[in-house]
Amino acid sequence: MQVKNINEVDFEKLVLHEKRPVLVDFYADWCGPCKMLSPVLEEAADEIGSNAVIYKVDIEKNQSLAANYNVLSIPHMTIFKNGKIDNTINGYQDKESIVQALR
């Protein structure tokens, strides 16, 4: 499963109304650790398949969304279950940690 970029317009429909767990990676193109995390998220998405969804939100283009979810540093991942925040993870993580957090 491919990790897709979403924006403020799509957020409610794709994240808050999704029945499966959703990981949202808040990132910026200029962020080194965010760039390192990107292929790890792709690998995690492949491993979890259709059991969960992973999206990316560019904080430069979606500043109010980042502010709404208290993104103070990046990379910042928020896991939603049934439309509610279940967990927040800051900083670079390995694939196993991400997959475990989504299960």
Write a structural description.
- The protein is of the alpha/beta class and 103 residues long.
- It has one domain (4-102): Glutaredoxin (3-Layer(aba) Sandwich), CATH 3.40.30.10.
- It is built from 4 helices and 5 strands.
- The protein has helices spanning 8-16, 32-48, 63-68, 95-102; strands at residues 4-5, 22-27, 53-58, 76-81, 84-90.
- It has a 5-stranded mixed beta sheet, with helices on both faces.
- A hairpin with a 2-residue loop joins strand 4 and strand 5.
- Helix 2 (32-48) packs across helix 4.
- The radius of gyration is 12 Å and the shape is globular.
- The mean pLDDT is 95.
Secondary structure: elements and pairs:
Blueprint (H helix, E strand, L loop, with lengths): L3 E2 L2 H9 L5 E6 L4 H17 L4 E6 L4 H6 L7 E6 L2 E7 L4 H8 L1
CATH architecture: 3-Layer(aba) Sandwich
Structure summary, number of beta strands = 5
Domain count, please report it: 1
What do we call the CATH homologous superfamily?
Glutaredoxin
Essential attributes:
103 residues; alpha/beta; Glutaredoxin; five-stranded mixed β-sheet; 4 helices; 39% helix; 26% strand
